[in-house]
Amino acid sequence: MAEFWAKGVELGLKGKQLTEFVESQTRLLAQREERQAQREREERQAQSEREERQAQREERQAQREERERQIELKRLELQIKMETKRLELQTEMVRVQNQHEAPRQRDNQQQMLHRASKLPAFTDGKDQIDTPYFTGEVEAVCLKKPLYDLLIGNIGGARRPDDPDVEWRMGAAQPAVEEEDPLPFANEDISELLRDDIATVHRRDQPQVVSAVTTRAQAKKDKTTTPLRVTNSSATAVVDRDQLIQLQEADLTLTKYRSRPVKEMTKGEGTVHFEVKAKILYRVFQHPRVNGGKPLRQVLVPQPLRRQVMEVAHDSIMGGHLGVKKTSDRIQAAFYWPGLHADVTRFCRSCDICQKTIPRGRVPKVPLQKMPLIDRPFKRVAIDLIGEIKPPSEAGHRWVLTLVDYATRYPEAVPLKKIDTETVAEALVDIFSRIGVPEEILTDLGTQFVSECMEEVNRLLSIRHLTTTPYHPMCNGLVEKFNATLKSTLKKLCSEQPRQWHRYINALLFAYREVPQESTGFSPFELMYGRTVRGPMQILKELWTKDVDTPEVKNSYQYVFELREKLEETLEIARENLRKSQDSGKHYYDRKAVNRKFTPGNKVLILLPTDHNKLLMQWKGPYEVETVVGIDDYKVNVGKKSKIYHANLLKLYVERPPEAVQVAASVEEPAELDEFDGEELLELGDLHKKEGVDDVKLGPDLTEDQQKELHDFMGDFTHRFSDVPGSTSLVEHEVHLTSDVPVRSKPYPIPFQARESLKKDIDNMLKMGVIRESSSPYSSPVVVVKKKDGTNRVCIDFRKVNKITVFDPEPMPTATDLFRQLTGSKIFSKIDLSKGYWQIPVREEDIPKTAFATPDGTYECLRMPFGMVNSGATLKRGMRKMLKGMKNVVYYWDDLLVHTETFAEHLETLRELFSRLTKANLTVRPSKCILGTDNVDFIGYSLKEGQKGLLLENVTKILNAPRPETKKQVRSFLGLAGYYREFIPNFAAITAPLSDMTRKGCPNRILWGPAQEKAYQTVRDLMSRDPVLRLPDTAKEFILRTDASDEGIGAMLMQEHGGKPFPVSYASKKLSGAEKNYSTMEKECLAIVWGIKTFELYLQGVKFVLQTDHKPLTYLNSAKFVNNRIMRWVMYLQNFDMRVESIKGSDNVGADFLSRVCE
């Protein structure tokens, strides 16, 4: 206390002030000492508890070790007893066997004793013995007073004591069975031997019955092998040579090959001709990669024998039920007939065994359906049971009843000792007493939930009961996901006390209810009570800071009114977040989904569990579809019952037609000689059409009527859907040069392994009329480039020709211009031209300028090639001419995008577009077309309902890219990520540590430090969050927010949707050295000018709002500034019609963040 008096005097305090100062300091000291003593007491108590727990653990460990020691002793004691019993039984078996062979044994004994009497005691000698256990010559020791006639010890080849040779007879010379282990029974299970010995040997006090003993090994050898089950095949019918000749002559589909003269036809790199040898018709096929280049003679199979051949190749025991290609290859090794590949495809797809054993993952899932969004708490709840949990709790609980609310995600969990209907109903009523009675409950088909008792409970409480389809837990995914979280967390909490798990449930529920849900953005507590619940984090914060919020005093009416308003607001936000989360989940789920539909009468296979195990699923059936119940649910007749199944558990069953069908007529015609079936057809490459309307993808959310309309539309324009390029007359590619001197370049060396592929592509282009042989004085080198699908693309290096080519100034469309036109569109169709460049001819006088050299000669292009400086401009001009005056269609190179608000307008636009494509003689690639979808990928972005997102494929590349180590790799990473810089706030500042490493003078090998690692990981993290921007709507007012910091400036362009501002684009820039010296006013003004210049395309000529958190700048349009630089900027801003608003710094988080450098 004296110290406090001295300190008070030093501070100049006197009288009452000094006394109060000393008293306050004394109280504070006492409080600190009390807190210190309290902490010490708590630490001592915690230490005592830790020591007590440690002692308990050590005691339990000692008890476990003692139990294990006792178990080991008992095991050894039992093993000794069993070994003793086994030896006694073996001795008894030998005695019984000796009695059985007594006469023979006495004779053998006399002979052996006679020989033994001639040998001295303990002398060695070789002797020939003949016994049921060993026959042969051995080295033996002869005793004067033997205990037994013969003792056979541990010698090689000796039989087991319980396995004598039952066929042995006196005087027989049966060789002993040679075994590497003299005592092979030493490692066998004693209990097994004990059971066998008890079964075959009698006790001494029982009548002894002697019989031959059969060992397990002998029984396995003598066991008859079960014959293999072989599929019955009609191929067992014997067909001799004369019958084959008769069937070939009678088959009308083979007459054409027999009647025409032998003529060799070229097929890709191979040749084909037909011949008759010994009255049998053959097809002779020769190819350098087939049969070592030797001719392959194939028998032409008549129609009655074709099914037999396919059964042997596919269904037989040596057929292996292989796929279409391998089965087709196996057949073509010896046989052939017109339409072989199509017949084999139908045969394999209709194979009953193959259909029932196909892996579940090979059957695509149907598109995900959206669950209705619930906007009122506890209107609908999901219920399920967890268990049986082992070990049960100390109180006997084995199950957990779980309940989750669809609107708030508020969970409940009640441990149960049993799960009969009455117990479950009472637990539910107990929960309803706290949360209220819901209108709907969703459960699976458990007997507890569908029993008559539960139905009566639902009737009394006016609850509508909804159930999932069998074996489809995805329908009740909300509670299933909570169950997984509960089980995982409960396992961690009760790891030290497993039988106390029921006491952790309430704490676990608090932890789950306190944290925000990813789908709603709020915690269940907030949505339930309209406030943040005081939890461990708040308590810890209050203990550390002594900062306790004092609630505002309100009357009851005001409190209820504000609480209701807040609940309605948060539920509305949560509902919107749920809708977005639902759309995002459906988007990613539907990427590999296929819209599979079944009709009444279809035969289907059902994926059902075996042995009541959900994990062991196999296809069963076929069964018949009775009716369509829902969007993806079907009622199927399973045996004598009708059950409802989800489409993901069903697979269409393809029935194999009968072997012989009597028909009145057939529309199938014999194949022409110039049409070749089989795998070799692919070698003709682009010469023949390989894709058609069946390869076009349709939007997964289209109704059946809309799909039918699109199929009718595609039927009207079938000739436009082809992977074979057309030839348009809209435009010709012209090459204007500044010099008449021919350009010649030395050919590049082509790798030997790529030359064959290059020759094949050249041959294909010759047949398609894309190129022709040339004697032009021009010559450009060729390179072979790998495409995404693994095939090669022939590219010509026209760089020297491009240098003297007059540049074509045709303007190119920008992504900004394209996306501006897509605002408000809800339905999209993406169409890709088939090799768009090759559909444009080259002007006749310019063809020699396109010449190129290959190892096999010089060729020139008849169609516009890749790589010429004006090729893109020519394609752009042709597209502009074709689409002139047409609305709702945008294009980027050879990609077209049809966008409309309604389906009727969309179909009309498609018909107009394809009419123009027909007139221009252009074709589209079917496999790259998608029609009538609400979500489409276009020029590197994902578009959906007025929003623009990142393309998953490119994001995956960035996330999977290895960390850059050189300047080139850093530039490559920044280039790929920079394509999406408008999605990443403050991209320039974030990537500054990486871009700085690419400056001149920096080492080529990047010195990777914490700043570079943080920038690299930040870019990856921001892109992995799937950011979304709104497409600009020129009919709405734009909002521009800007801000400046000491290191950079940022701008954010926004528009309001539903009364809330949403970002359209982000922009940011690092300040230069001179700009960093600007005053705060100058930096803020610079941010405004730079932001307006960046988004000038949107802001020029329209009214917009400029929002800034620097209030003096709100007078830009009225005040006079002394600073000349600011005055010049003000004069520039007079060209724009804007309204300046001041906002709080806390509201300007977007632009403020953009101006900050990633530290």
In short:
The chain has 1159 residues and is α+β, with helices and mostly antiparallel strands.
Number of strands: 36
CATH class of the domain at 693-945: Alpha Beta
Mean pLDDT: 78
Helices and strands: which structural class? alpha+beta
Largest sheet: number of strands, sense, barrel closure: 5 strands, mixed
Q: CATH superfamily assignment of the domain at 693-945?
A: HIV Type 1 Reverse Transcriptase, subunit A, domain 1
Radius of gyration: 44 Å
Strand order of the largest sheet: 3-4-5-6-7
Residue stretches low in confidence (pLDDT < 50, at least 5 long) are 113-123, 172-213, 660-687
What's the N-to-C terminus distance? 49 Å
Helix percentage range:
25-40%
What's the CATH topology label of the domain at 693-945? HIV Type 1 Reverse Transcriptase, Chain A, domain 1
- What is the CATH architecture term of the domain at 693-945? Roll
Shape category? extended
Q: Tally the helices: what do you get?
A: 34
Beta percentage is 15-25%
Domain Reverse transcriptase: 766-943
Region (Disordered): 29-68
GO molecular function: endonuclease activity; nucleic acid binding; peptidase activity; RNA-directed DNA polymerase activity
Keywords: Endonuclease, Hydrolase, Nuclease, Nucleotidyltransferase, Protease, RNA-directed DNA polymerase, Transferase
